[in-house]
Specification:
This is Heme chaperone HemW. The chain is an alpha/beta fold. The protein has two domains: 280 residues, Aldolase class I (TIM Barrel); 52 residues, no CATH class. It contains 17 helices and 15 strands. α4 links the parallel β3 and β4. The chain starts with 8 loop residues before the first strand and ends with a helix. It binds S-adenosylmethionine (SAM) and iron/sulfur cluster.
């Protein structure tokens, strides 16, 4: 949930969607994202749409937030009509969702259930900072219907956590995983960040070992992105910290894949590993495979049937709109056929399930042949008509997608 909004056409104040978006709704997987835009402090590298208490200003409060989101859930039902639309996945992200009382998160989830109905076995995830939960809050979340939790671990090294401005101790994520398991969470993810300035290969190995040892069934590992306008970017510009190096990041990726694979975690998306198919994040898979989702909360981006829209960014503007009975949607765009093909290629080529060769534009076939010759695509699936990235291909995924789209 990046903090800047793209351009687009103004969205209608009713939130109404074009007919093209509504046709076929219910035939594709349907998910709900709930953005919770609050953090205790802002990490120096983070560009997400989130506010500390000091930054929030008047017109919005954490206390009233759940009621405001429930209003948007009701609006979603009116906009999407009365058709059967059971929810396959729900994902609460942030910000720090677990800064809100668990009862508030459960109340929002209950509103989604009562308006739409959760499909039996629906995946319901919340993100959490490791220091923002305890056994009692985890139990309440579990009883409230959450069955998956994703902790922002980032690193097991104190000096790395310090550069990232993280507030938890190196041992806290493992304790949080244990508490989540004891509370009955079926699925637990740990998010890691690599190539932070000052991190060595050994630090990264130690972080991976600690993450594996903690016993999650899913690990996400992202290279640190230096976002414009963040404190991290300013520190790098002033020469206080070195710029993360692409070659170092590539080496760290190889280390991650090696250690995770040894421990039984298999990649299923370039930055995501899981111990089994059931442990894959179904909500993210819905994003990556052209599903429909309604995203509630300030700055949240929704997608239904080729129409994308995004809400006003500030929590005060968001609350004001909903209090006035007006849709919080700020702008929208209807994707044309070309946009949809490009998006599908960009997302599906990053998946272990691959991208069908038959769907590659004729003009891009020489690029595909070159990628196979350079060892970027697995030969066996290729023979069966699928482009699946090799390990080397995963390192060069972005460049390959760019080449395929010219
Ligand atoms: C935005 S956070 C929300 C969840 C929670 N507040 C946390 O920090 O774990 C989701 C994930 O995005 C990661 N993230 C945010 N900014 C990033 C950046 N610039 N580079 C890499 N990962 C980033 C966070 O570290 C975190 O694991
Ligand atoms: S806690 Fe998470 S969302 Fe909040 S500032 Fe840090 S990375 Fe961003």
């Amino acid at each position: 949930m990046p903090s800047t909004l793209p351009d687009g056409d103004p969205a209608p104040t009713t939130g109404e969607l074009p007919d093209s978006a509504l046709s076929g709704l219910g035939e594709r997987p349907f998910g709900f994202y709930v953005h919770v835009p609050f953090c205790v402090t802002r990490c120096g590298y983070c560009d997400f749409n989130t506010y500390t208490a000091a930054e929030l200003g008047p017109g919005a409060s954490q206390r009233d937030y759940a009621d405001t989101v429930v209003e948007e859930v009701r609006l979603a039902r009116r906009v999407l009509g009365e058709r059967e639309l059971p929810v396959d996945t729900v994902f609460f992200g942030g910000g720090t969702p677990t800064l809100l009382p668990p009862e508030d998160l459960a109340r929002i989830l209950a509103a989604i259930d009562s308006e739409f109905g959760l499909r039996p076995g629906a995946e319901v995830t919340t993100e959490a900072n490791p220091e923002s939960v305890d056994p009692s809050s985890l139990e309440k979340l579990r009883h409230g219907g959450f069955n998956r939790i994703s902790f922002g671990m980032q690193s097991a090294r104190e000096h790395v956590l310090r550069v990232l401005d993280r507030k938890h101790t190196p041992g806290r994520p493992a304790a949080a995983v244990r508490e989540a398991r004891e509370a009955g969470f079926e699925h637990v993810n740990l998010d890691l960040i690599y190539s932070t300035p000052g991190e060595s290969d050994d630090d990264w190995r130690a972080s991976l070992a600690a993450a594996i040892e903690a016993g999650p069934d899913h690990v996400s590992a992202y290279s640190l992105i230096v976002e414009e306008g963040t404190r991290l970017a300013a520190r790098i510009r002033r020469g206080e910290l070195p710029l993360p190096d692409d070659d170092v990041a590539a080496d760290r990726y190889l280390i991650a894949d090696e250690l995770l694979a040894e421990a039984g975690f298999h990649w299923y998306e370039v930055s995501n590993w899981a111990v089994s198919e059931e442990a894959r994040c179904r909500h993210n898979l819905l994003y990556w495979t052209g599903g429909d989702w309604w995203a509630a909360g300030p700055g949240a981006h929704s997608h239904v049937g080729g129409t994308r829209w995004w809400n006003v960014k500030h929590p005060a503007a968001y609350a004001q709109r909903l209090a006035a009975g007006v849709s919080p949607a700020h702008s929208r765009e209807v994707l044309d056929a070309g946009d949809r093909v490009a998006e599908r290629l960009m997302l599906e080529l990053r998946l272990v399930t691959g991208y069908p060769l038959a769907d590659v534009a004729p003009g891009a076939r020489p690029v595909v042949a070159g990628a196979l010759a350079r060892g970027l695509l697995e030969p066996e699936p290729f023979k069966a008509g699928l482009m699946v990235l090799t390990l080397r291909g995963r390192l060069l995924a972005d460049a390959l997608v760019r080449d395929l789209l010219v």
